[in-house]
Write a structure and sequence with these properties.
It is built from one helix and 21 strands. It is of the alpha/beta class and 203 residues long. The chain has a seven-stranded parallel sheet with strand order 1-3-5-7-9-11-13, with no helix packed on it. It has a seven-stranded parallel sheet with strand order 2-4-6-8-10-12-14, with no helix packed on it. A four-stranded parallel sheet has the order 15-17-19-21, with no helix packed on it.
Length: 203
């Protein structure tokens, strides 16, 4: 294309004003640019795409106006990989942290779908799916239901010690021969003692 310049060894520049300033670099598209300096193997594919930073190898920018610095990878229209070894996938996606993959930006959110369930084990680095989280939540619900039942039974427990003793109130205790605790949370201690009111104590 008019104004195209391939300035490095084994480099390719195709398109009007496409420029490659590195060895083994490839720029395809009007005003596409690869500039890795001493680095190699940069790829810019798409009009106004840009790939590379001085001294870094392997940057890839694919899509119109995409931009990949250092050794990042940008895939998509206006996608931008702005950190070392980062990947930006999708239109206008931006990756700003090293060694991360971004599928959107601060304003664009996307979901990953059709994923296989992860291997859930010690040392696994798989991504867990919504299906697995749902199953985990269901197990937690079962445990909570069981715990709530045990707590209810504990709260309704009655203590009876002694011949003829009787505790009929919730959380009541009757201790002693023929002692009676009929009120909720009542305590009757002593032979023939009786606690009939709620929270009453007879000794």
């Amino acid at each position: 294309g008019m104004g195209a310049r391939a300035e490095g060894k084994e480099s390719v520049a195709l398109g009007g004003s496409a420029i490659v300033r590195s060895n083994s670099g490839t720029a395809v598209g009007a005003y596409s640019t690869v500039n890795t300096g001493a680095g190699v193997d940069g790829l810019a594919l798409g009009a106004y795409s840009r790939a590379g930073s001085q001294g870094w190898s392997g940057a890839m920018a694919v899509g119109g106006n995409s931009d990949a610095v250092l050794d990042g990878t940008a895939l998509g229209y206006y996608a931008k990989a702005q950190a070392q070894s980062s990947v930006a996938i999708g239109r206008s996606s931006v990756s700003t942290e090293s060694n991360t993959v971004s599928f959107g930006s601060s304003t664009i959110k996307r979901r990953l779908v059709n994923l296989q369930d992860a291997r859930v084990s010690a040392g696994s680095t798989d991504a867990v799916t919504g299906n697995q989280l749902f199953a985990t939540n269901e197990e937690i619900k079962k445990i909570k239901t069981s715990a709530d039942g045990a707590m209810a039974r504990l709260n309704a427990a009655k203590i009876v010690v002694g011949q003829g003793a009787a505790a009929s109130g919730a959380n009541s205790a009757a201790i002693g021969l023929n002692s009676k605790a009929t009120g909720n949370s009542a305590v009757s201690a002593g032979n023939a003692s009786s606690a009939a009111g709620a929270y009453a104590t007879a000794v």
